[in-house]
């Protein structure tokens, strides 16, 4: 019996050894093909990205890698795994062309985890027309923060089901973390520093942005709907974030980045800007020392008087159903110096000066925390309702709100108002 048991044990061990060398055993972690590379394998890595098949993972060991660019397209269930953001470094500074550092197109099920991407000529990582995208423990950094940097650091666009988590973005000449024309997105536990915009949610629906820190940018957080894009945004919640000290010079590129509709419009000193976006809830955030405007709610007409001509199923220029409540807001004693050199910054300075000139009792107070352009759907319907677009504010404290009366800014009848009563949540 003992000998039989011994042979039986050997047989079982043999079966296990065969199983360990079988194709099925290579499916550890749910990936049929598992590839691993180290520094010096850059040519092999670039080829592997181009030739990936469904259900593949690539592990990049600790070290510095130098690439021109990397591209993945039209596959399913892909993982790109590094050893950690401070350990696996992908450097694109020698890039010979102005495209993305990493480009991912039409991938269903894509995860990138645990590495730093740095110094691409164009966007750092662009995920295009993909589904079930996860970017985690990813740093995307330009060493110099100026107009020579690429536009977007972390850049999913026209995607579905996106998670950006524990990421860091620095130096983008547009937005550090940008989610565009996407359905269902989460941005959480991320940081963005020294970008024009820390984070931008643009023409994106059903997004949640929470537990983030956006600081030291021109503007902390933007929720924009722009015309001439493939879809309309809305239903965005931003909560439990820390937006602070966003007072830096706007270094957006000229052309597409500095156009009428571009992020070049963001004034230095902007905490949160909601532009032509609807169904937005902004709550339980700390919005501190963004020294031009803590929160701005503006219509497309504020930056382009022809915005009404751009209306269609994908674009409506006037923000509606905006709920702002339970945020902690503070501003410094003066506008940041960069605001006086910026076109929107100069407008904000002018609003503050007008308020204090028409009401000496303000004793030269700062611009109120919430700046609303006051342009409503009355401009389209010829109505007279006071708050037809459901701006709902529930905040405590003095100097909370100004209706800019933007349509009359160039006339003698211009009279911005600090009366918040019509906008207090009922």
From TrEMBL:
PROSITE patterns: PROKAR_LIPOPROTEIN. InterPro entries: Beta_helix, PbH1, Pectin_lyas_fold, Pectin_lyase_fold/virulence, SO_2930-like_dom. Coiled coil: none annotated. Gene3D superfamilies: Single-stranded right-handed beta-helix, Pectin lyase-like. Residues 101-287 form the Right handed beta helix domain. The keyword S-adenosyl-L-methionine does not apply. SMART domains: PbH1. Residues 1-25 form the signal peptide. Transmembrane segments: none annotated. This is Parallel beta-helix repeat protein.
């Amino acid at each position: 019996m003992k000998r039989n048991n011994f042979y039986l044990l050997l047989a079982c061990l043999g079966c296990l050894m065969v199983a360990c060398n079988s194709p099925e055993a290579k499916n550890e972690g749910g990936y049929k093909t598992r590839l691993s590379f180290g520094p010096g394998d850059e040519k092999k890595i670039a080829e592997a990205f181009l030739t990936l098949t469904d259900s593949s993972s690539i592990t990049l060991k600790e070290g510095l890698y130098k690439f021109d660019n990397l591209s993945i397209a039209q596959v399913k269930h892909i993982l790109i795994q590094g050893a950690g953001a401070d350990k696996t470094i992908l450097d694109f500074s020698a890039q010979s062309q102005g495209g993305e550092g990493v480009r991912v197109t039409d991938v269903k099920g894509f995860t990138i985890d645990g590495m730093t991407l740095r110094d691409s000529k164009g966007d750092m990582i662009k995920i295009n027309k993909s589904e079930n995208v996860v970017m985690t423990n990813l740093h995307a950094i330009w060493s110099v923060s100026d107009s020579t940097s690429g536009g977007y650091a972390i850049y999913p666009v026209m995607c579905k089901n996106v998670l950006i988590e524990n990421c860091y973005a620095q130096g983008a000449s547009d937005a550090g973390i940008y989610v565009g024309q996407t359905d269902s997105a989460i941005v959480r536990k991320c940081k963005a520093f020294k970008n024009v915009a820390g984070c931008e949610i643009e023409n994106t629906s059903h997004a949640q942005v929470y537990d983030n820190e956006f600081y030291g940018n021109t503007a902390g957080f933007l929720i924009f709907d722009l015309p001439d894009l493939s879809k309309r945004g809305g239903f965005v919640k931003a909560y439990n974030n820390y937006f602070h000290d966003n007072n830096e010079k706007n270094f957006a590129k000229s052309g597409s980045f500095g156009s009428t509709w571009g992020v070049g419009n963001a004034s230095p000193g902007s905490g949160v800007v909601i532009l032509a976006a609807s169904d937005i809830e902004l709550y339980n955030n700390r919005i501190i020392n963004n020294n031009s405007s803590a929160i701005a709610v503006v219509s497309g007409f504020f930056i382009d008087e022809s915005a009404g001509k751009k209306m269609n199923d994908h674009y409506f220029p006037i923000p509606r159903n905006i709920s702002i409540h339970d945020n902690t807001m503070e501003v410094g004693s003066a506008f940041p110096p960069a605001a006086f050199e910026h076109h929107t910054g100069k407008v904000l300075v002018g609003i503050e000066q007008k308020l204090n000139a028409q009401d000496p009792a303000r004793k030269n107070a700062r611009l109120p925390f919430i700046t609303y352009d006051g342009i409503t759907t009355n401009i389209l319907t010829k109505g007279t309702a006071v708050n037809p677009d459901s701006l709902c504010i529930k905040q405590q404290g003095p100097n909370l709100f100004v209706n800019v009366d933007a349509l009359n800014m160039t006339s003698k009848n211009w009279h911005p108002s600090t009366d918040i009563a019509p906008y207090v949540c009922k």
